[in-house]
Write a structure and sequence with these properties.
Number of helices: 14
Radius of gyration: 17 Å
Shape: globular
Structural class: mainly alpha
Number of strands: 0
């Protein structure tokens, strides 16, 4: 096993969990978990700690706002309160509005089912990324977050290693080429690999520990 393979193995072994898993989303290619992932991606894309975004997503789900109909039908204050319970206070009012608008768009354009967005993209990941950015509150970073996680159930997207994941690879001393990184990861799921690399990008200690334990 090469040094780089050892680094990837250590990283994935300690930090190989998706953000959807952190948020309690049992990701499947069905409408409700896909919408929950969209909500999580929107929350994670703000300049706020990932743990707060995850906690806030959980609070929204626990408040019953798990699908576009319930999210759009909820009172604005209900969304604000759920975000506040998760610690998402800096952006809570604007985000509460965006969540309602996003739910309305998903309902009206894709019948509440993001699989229809997938069908519209027709296997073109670039097109899918562009469609995601039509959702209020979901810019390029949010689209990347969604696709990093969705590649677990939408295999045509994989391997999806965006700029943030590649930042983590660079910090770990791994190659710049996504295909080479995937090769080093062996049987590791691309979604798990991408999430672990993002954790290395966001936390210098994650990268340093992985490199130290691999040596």
């Amino acid at each position: 096993m090469s040094d780089r393979q050892s680094v990837v193995r250590e990283l994935v072994g300690e930090h190989g969990r998706t953000y959807a898993e952190d948020a309690g989303i049992k990701l499947k290619d069905t409408p409700q978990p896909l919408f929950q992932l969209l909500v999580l991606a929107l929350l994670l894309s703000a300049r706020i700690r990932g743990s707060i975004a995850v906690d806030s997503a959980r609070e929204l789900y626990e408040a019953g706002l798990r699908d576009p109909r319930r999210m759009a039908g909820a009172d604005w204050q209900q969304r604000v309160d759920a975000l506040g319970r998760g610690g998402y206070r800096r952006y809570d009012e604007r985000t509460a509005t965006q969540l309602g608008e996003a739910a309305e768009l998903v309902s009206e354009r894709w019948g509440g089912d993001l699989r229809r967005m997938r069908e519209e993209a027709d296997g073109d990941t670039g097109r899918l990324r562009a469609l995601l950015q039509e959702v209020p509150g979901l810019g390029p970073a949010g689209a990347d977050i969604f696709l990093r996680e969705a590649q677990r159930v939408w295999p045509e997207v994989a391997p999806y290693l965006d700029r943030k994941a590649l930042d983590g690879a660079r910090r770990l001393g791994l190659p710049k080429d996504p295909d080479r990184i995937v090769e080093l990861a062996g049987d590791t799921e691309p979604a798990v690999l991408a999430a672990a690399l993002v954790r290395a990008a966001l936390d210098k200690e994650v990268a340093e520990d992985s490199r130290r334990h691999a040596s």
